[in-house]
Design goal:
Order of helices and strands of chain A: HHHHHEHEHEHEHEH
Organism (chain A): Desulfatibacillum alkenivorans DSM 16219
Domain B12-binding N-terminal (chain A): 1-84
Number of helices of chain A: 10
InterPro entries (chain A): Cbl-bd_cap, Cobalamin-bd, Cobalamin-bd_sf, Met_Synthase/Corrinoid, Meth_synthase_dom
Shape of chain B: globular
CATH topology of the largest domain in chain A: Rossmann fold
Shape of chain A: elongated
Largest interface: A-B, 36 and 39 residues
CATH class of the largest domain in chain B: Alpha Beta
CATH class of the largest domain in chain A: Alpha Beta
Structural class of chain B: alpha/beta
GO cellular component, one term (chain A): cytosol
Largest sheet of chain A: 5 strands, parallel
CATH architecture of the largest domain in chain A: 3-Layer(aba) Sandwich
Strand order of the largest sheet of chain A: 2-1-3-4-5
Largest sheet of chain B: 6 strands, parallel
CATH superfamily of the largest domain in chain A: Cobalamin-binding domain
Radius of gyration of chain B: 22 Å
Distance between the termini of chain A: 34 Å
Oligomer: heterodimer
Helix content of chain B: 55-70%
Protein name (chain A): Methanogenic corrinoid protein MtbC1
Strand content of chain A: 5-15%
Strand content of chain B: 5-15%
Chain lengths: 211, 441
């Protein structure tokens, strides 16, 4: 399996799918193949933290994981894969009302997913009420609000105020993400943390869950 | 590559022509002197001129001048009188050293005529009180690199525009223009142009062109007034880094990032192919507006988006070629370095043999000054969050700090690290005044 792990970690997409198919054809335990993917993801995560991997590698990792899972899943006994990847926390993510940008949000969602979070993505231009409603239902550990524009500051502030008014502020951590976020904005909005890139967002989330 | 001292001479000649204000009908001798002083300050910063008197201040604006007057984003994009007047008022109130490029607001009716879908704009997909926003999608598929590489103009016209300009969808059925080389082969092209859907598309293009022409004629009066009052504009033309063209407008960020692994050679060929078109686009604007500064907003090469090795391979070489091509035409490349560039500053130092500017967004300005000071002109770095959510006193204090940190090498232009969609009067005033108070050398 080391060959497969290395191929995934080294971004050799074609070889990864070839090997996966070959192992399946040879009758290797699909759960073991799936474990190889998990181990590779951990290695990719380490390279990411060491600043050797960046967004392109995370996107490729996500793609390989998706394609690999599709090959493996039909061979897996029910619930095997699902349970093994045991989720570490729940994250509700949305681009706030008025802002339609989703590149950053989508990358964060994908990396969170790869890192074991159960992610609910509400999309773009999402009104505060809809986020609160979804939060009540989904019960996330963290609510992440994305916004590229400075015009997103006030709707984010209004969201936090609504959350407080409903007596829910202490139930969720609130993280804001976007190009112009900083401590000043974080305090203005009343969020718990601010980030300007996906990795920082994921790291902060893991830190919160570990606390 | 040309002899670099010759290139700088060409840049200086264009700068001198711009500073002179030739062709501008100034309100008075005083406003002419003010214009020359302001443009001179900016030019001195580009030239890293030791005799510069003061740090110039140049807030970059998109919708801020209109929003600060309570004019909605919709109104700004549909009423050139309201938008133009707001830009005049902004200059009068805050007395910046360079005025914002009001035409970057664009004209909503022309976009409607074209059924433009690369952006959503107030009243067309975003609320009327907000600004326009990019609508990124995969407008070019992974197997279309060869089309782009073999003929970018044909690709724009017959592949990309039909997808991003709804009214021009029939252009996809236009036969290639190349038959026009000979009478017997000319027919197919013209017949294609004559087809009813194509005629409708051409009418839409004519109409959008006419709308924009009328719009700029109306707004032009205000732009002329701004210059007549003594304010140069901070950009004459605009273009982009080839990688960003593909990432933002063609493939989409996620798709292009996968292409770096799946078809790296095609990506490299494509960015190379876009170098000359980007130079041409930038130079055309600068020449038309008699203003050498070519604005280049940088996006996907920022820290976090890719490794230095990827930046060095896919992003930087063609951006650098565009910058040098602009410089050889006498233009001043002004990169708006969005996001953070803390890992990339060394690369930027490479362009110290031409006159250029890097306006930073979230890059650590102390680090930028340390790496680039005395080599290239640096600008920006002031947090927009302070303008929007802080007090005039704090803004004044932070502005002073920024000037102390970034301005010590005399090649610094004070600016906010963001194209402003909004602003607050008292903090904006404090920011612009602080530049004059603390920026004296």
């Amino acid at each position: 399996m080391q060959e497969l792990i290395d191929a995934i970690a080294d971004m050799m997409e074609d070889k990864v799918l070839e090997l996966t198919q070959k192992y399946l054809d040879e009758g290797k335990d699909p759960a073991e193949i799936f474990d190889a993917y998990q181990s590779a993801m951990e290695e990719i995560g380490r390279r990411f933290e060491a600043n050797t991997y960046f967004v392109p590698e995370l996107i490729m990792a996500g793609e390989m994981m998706k394609a690999g899972s599709e090959l493996i899943k039909p061979h897996l006994k029910e619930d095997a894969a699902g349970d093994k990847s045991g989720k570490i926390g729940k994250y509700l993510i949305a681009t706030i009302e008025g802002d339609i940008h989703d590149i950053g949000k989508n990358i964060v969602g994908m990396i969170l997913d790869l890192n074991g979070f159960e992610v609910m993505d509400l999309g773009v231009d999402v009104p505060a009420d809809k986020i609160i409603e979804a939060a009540k239902e989904f019960q996330p550990d963290i609510i992440g609000l994305s916004g590229l524009l400075t015009l997103a500051f006030d709707p984010m502030k209004a969201f936090v105020e609504k959350l407080t008014a409903e007596g829910l502020r202490d139930k969720f951590k609130v993280m804001i993400g976007g190009a112009q976020m900083d401590q000043q904005v974080c305090e203005y909005i009343g969020a718990d943390a601010w980030v300007t890139d996906a990795v920082a967002g994921v790291n902060k989330s893991k830190e919160w869950l570990a606390a | 590559m040309s002899d670099m001292s010759e290139v700088r001479k060409k840049q200086d000649a264009f700068l001198d022509k711009w500073i002179s204000g030739e062709g501008i009908e100034f309100v008075s001798e005083e406003t002419k002197a003010a214009y020359q002083e302001r443009a001179g300050l900016l030019a001195a910063a580009f030239r890293l001129d030791d005799s510069i008197k003061r740090v110039p201040v140049m807030p970059m604006t998109t919708f801020a001048p209109t929003m600060m007057k309570g004019i909605s984003g919709r109104e700004a994009m549909y009423n050139p009188d309201a938008a133009g007047q707001a830009y005049v008022d902004f200059c009068e109130t805050y007395q910046p050293d360079a005025a914002g490029a009001a035409p970057m607001l664009m004209y909503g009716p022309a976009l409607e005529t074209l059924k433009y879908n690369l952006y959503k704009w107030p009243g067309q997909g975003v609320p009327e009180n907000l600004s326009y926003q990019f609508h990124e999608k995969e407008y070019m598929t992974a197997d279309e690199y060869d089309k782009l590489i073999s003929d970018p103009t044909d690709f724009y016209l017959r592949t990309w525009m039909p997808r991003t300009h709804g009214a021009l969808a029939p252009f996809a059925d236009m036969p290639p223009v190349y038959g026009a080389m000979e009478l017997p082969m000319l027919g197919p092209w013209l017949i294609g142009i004559g087809a009813p859907p194509m005629q409708e598309a051409l009418k839409a293009l004519m109409e959008a062109g006419k709308q924009c022409f009328d719009w700029i004629n109306t707004m032009g009066a205000y732009l002329n007034k701004i210059m007549a009052m003594g304010f140069p504009f901070y950009a004459g033309g605009a273009c982009k880094a080839p990688f960003d063209v593909i990432s933002d407008s063609f493939r989409g960020t996620t798709q292009l990032m996968m292409d770096l692994y799946r078809k790296p050679d095609k990506v490299l060929e494509a960015v190379e192919r876009l170098v000359q078109p980007m130079i041409d686009a930038g130079v055309a604007g600068a020449v038309a507006n008699n203003n050498p500064i070519v604005f280049i907003p940088l996006h996907k090469g920022a820290d976090g988006f890719m490794s230095n090795a990827q930046f060095e391979k896919f992003y930087w070489p063609t951006l650098k070629k565009v910058m040098y091509g602009l410089a050889e035409a006498g233009c001043i490349p002004g990169c708006f370095v969005e996001g953070g560039y803390n890992q990339r500053l060394e690369y930027l130092a490479d362009t110290s043999d031409i006159r250029c500017m890097y306006l930073f967004d979230r890059t650590d300005m102390a680090k930028a000054a340390e790496t680039l000071g005395g080599k290239v002109c640096i600008a920006g770095g002031f947090p927009v969050s302070m303008i929007l959510t802080s007090t005039p006193e704090k803004v004044e204090e932070e502005t002073k700090k920024m000037i102390d940190v970034a301005g010590k090498d005399k090649g610094y232009i004070l600016s906010i690290g963001c194209a402003l969609d909004e602003g607050k009067h008292d903090t904006m005033l404090a920011f612009c005044n602080a530049a004059k108070k603390y920026g004296q050398y």
